[in-house]
Design a protein that fits this description.
Length: 349
């Protein structure tokens, strides 16, 4: 067994504290990864507080992992000790259903095993990346270029692939008018990718103070959604709206901003289902679709694209002792745009 040092929630109200546990030695096709950085995703906070239900405690979050391979099972062919690698939202899927064989493991018919709070075949619960190391099957590990070997690469494994996959699947690029609703972890990556793919990008946000940062990220326009006149001026303007907001909001307000045949892509799941003004769809043949992270092949393609085009997330790097404060600040929307934990800082002995 390998001794791992991590950070875990003991129950839904405890917050996170240092936690020692054991990981299995890497089997035949598994690699042992020494974790350097782990991003903080909003889902980590929801799950640590059991807001989705089903959280198994002690709960170790973390699915935006960057690290180095330090040991490999005997049959591993894809990685060797010293390789810089990443691990994202899931560490296993069935491998043989139509979605798995079609490189869309995120939609595995038999269910993926999430990196955190997932069920392993032996009945144990997966422990995520807020820890010193992790053991993962080589087929679910991503190669990370050394040029991306910074904290800013960690959020690519969830926020990055979620937006990249949605943009690619909908073939968004040059000639498209794209609106990005919400400028948080997901939104800022959506802006970077959409701009990089050649789209004309407008950020829609209720915080007028974000205008400058939106433009700095490469957005071409900014609309303050709290200003009805500004919003009305862009009615029927967009081919696509990337809706990154998971808090409850009025979808109908934004559907009317789509052109005829325009598509709203939902990336955030609100706690309750929204009311839909169906006439907004029928009157202009508008569409609503959704997207969820991405397959392993797509994630690799995204990381390679980021290395080639020098794209990383804008992050604030923190020591593990700051995790609880970071959670509070995320709930107050006080982060630009993602916290990343430097797992090598002040680890408990
Ligand atoms: Zn996530
Ligand atoms: Zn499958």
């Amino acid at each position: 067994m390998i001794q791992a040092k991590g950070y875990a929630a003991e129950n839904s109200t405890s917050g996170l504290a240092p936690f020692s546990f054991e990981r299995q030695e890497p089997h035949e096709h598994e690699v042992l990864i020494d974790i350097l950085y782990c991003g903080i995703c909003h889902a980590d906070i929801h799950q640590s507080k059991n807001e989705y239900g089903g959280t198994q405690y002690p709960f170790v979050p973390g699915h935006e992992i960057i690290g180095r391979v330090i040991d490999t099972g005997e049959q591993v062919t894809k990685y060797k000790t010293g390789d810089l690698v990443g691990v994202g939202y899931f560490i296993l899927s069935c491998g043989h259903c139509p979605n798995c064989t079609n490189h869309e493991e995120q939609f595995c018919d038999n269910g993926i095993t999430p990196t955190q709070n997932g069920k392993l075949p032996d009945g144990s619960t997966t422990k995520g990346g807020y820890s010193s190391c992790i053991v993962v099957h080589e087929n679910y590990v991503l190669k990370v270029s050394d040029s991306l070997g910074t904290a800013g690469a960690a959020p690519l494994l969830c926020a990055g692939i979620t937006t990249y996959s949605a943009l690619r699947h909908n073939e968004i690029g040059t000639g498209h008018q794209v609106a990005v609703l919400g400028l948080g972890g997901l939104g800022h990556m959506a802006v970077k990718f959409a701009v990089s793919f050649g789209a004309e990008v407008t950020v829609l946000s209720s915080s007028p103070t974000k205008r400058e940062s939106a433009i700095a990220l490469g957005a071409h326009h900014f609309i303050n959604t709290a200003n009805e006149a500004e919003l009305k001026a862009v009615s029927g303007s967009f081919d696509f709206i990337m809706d990154t907001v998971s808090a409850p909001h009025d979808y109908n307000r934004y559907l009317r901003l789509l052109k005829k045949d325009g598509t709203m892509i939902l990336l955030g799941v609100p706690p309750e289902n929204p009311q839909l003004a169906v006439g907004l769809l029928t009157s202009r043949r508008r569409k609503i679709t959704g997207s969820f992270i991405g397959g392993i092949e797509d994630t690799q393609q995204m990381l390679d694209y980021c290395a080639e085009h020098d794209i990383t997330a804008d992050v604030e790097v923190i020591p593990p002792s700051y995790i609880n404060t970071a959670y509070e600040r995320i709930l107050e929307s006080d982060v630009t745009y993602r916290f990343v934990i430097d797992m090598k800082k002040d680890q408990q002995q």
